[in-house]
Amino acid sequence: MATCCPGDSLILPRNCHVSAISGMVLSGAVPKYMIPEFNCDWGIAGGITPLQVEHAIKELQLEGRKAAAVFVTSPTYHGVCSNLREICRVSHSHDIPVIVDEAHGAHFAFHPEFPEPALHQGVDIAVQSTHKVLCSLTQSSMLHVSGDKVDKERVSACLRTLQSTSPSYLLLASLDAARAQLSDKKDTVFNNALDLATKARTSITNIPGISLIGSSSFSNFSTVDPLRLTVGARELGLSGFEADERLYADQGIVPELVESNSITLTINLGTCEEHIQRLVSGLKRLSSEVSFPILPKASGRMSVKADAFVNISLTSTPREAFFAKKGRVDIRDSVGQVSGELICPYPPGVPLLIPGEIITHEALDYLELVVRQGGSITGASDPELSSIFVCI
């Protein structure tokens, strides 16, 4: 809202968080989607390259349009970081501001071994969920503005429009407490967490049938948050949901994120040696109890999510579709029609269906797969996913 007026184009990744879609509904921005690199072995999307941003800007120029802003998610939920410095160079050369969803990277400024923070790379707006890795209360976050490409008064006006006039001083106090905790030993406060992450990676790497995502998993993205552990048991023939159930039953482990092919865990300031021992013990037991390999079974699941982001077709803006008249149809009769709902597996809150997009077989197949494997879906008016609202 602070950078886009109704009808302005916003360049952003198609796997952005659901809140970015809501932002387009409120602002009236027209999306220009970029499709991130996808690792089919893991079923996980990576980041956005500077070349993709440049192509998107030039494609809009050929249409006689200019982007009002570029929006990038970095790091992703799995810790994959984009080259924000180069993205800023490309965008700023066209006088376009860069907004970064840095929800999972609020800790990057507090240790030299972490990826470089977004603000240090020249972005104009960075949004950080302080509660995710740092120690403030849930819902508390920070918005940082830098440089002169974004009108700070407009940012303040938008905040006043959206925020409550009765702010929670519990949340504000928790943000200040998190700030105080970090400022005391800002260069060493994460030393223990990094040591534990290294120990966990070393131990997990040696467990048969268990794999870990790393910097080599994506050809264009060599920087990954070291505190994120994305673990796969596909060589054991287990989905992420099945591995999650077994780890919880055995060791009481609750991952940060559970997906079809993996689970993602976060090491933070509250993690201790016992937590790592329980994780490693749980994965070892998982490996010893399940026969492997059963690769064909796992491979069949891995391409489904990638297919869901192919051939995306937008017939109206998210705002137009949000306010359009809608009718309910059987879920399988909806293919080819325009989605009237915003539906996504959660977490990570990445939408599979967005208002204004043509509904595809691939998107429905993935949603049904998530439900069959025990995942949860948010945003659907019909929790059973037997029907859906479409624009009429």
From TrEMBL:
Q: Which residues form the Orn/Lys/Arg decarboxylase C-terminal domain?
A: 324-371
Question: Short name of one Pfam family for this protein?
Answer: OKR_DC_1
| Ranges where the Orn/Lys/Arg decarboxylases family 1 pyridoxal-P attachment site domain occurs | 1-207
Quick check: keyword Lyase in the entry? yes
Molecular-function GO terms, alphabetical:
carboxy-lyase activity
Organism's domain of life? Eukaryota
The region annotated as signal peptide is none
Cofactors: pyridoxal 5'-phosphate
Q: Which UniProt keywords apply?
A: Decarboxylase, Lyase, Pyridoxal phosphate
Similarity comment: Belongs to the Orn/Lys/Arg decarboxylase class-I family.
What is the protein's given name? Arginine decarboxylase
User: What species is this protein from?
Assistant: Kalanchoe fedtschenkoi (Lavender scallops)
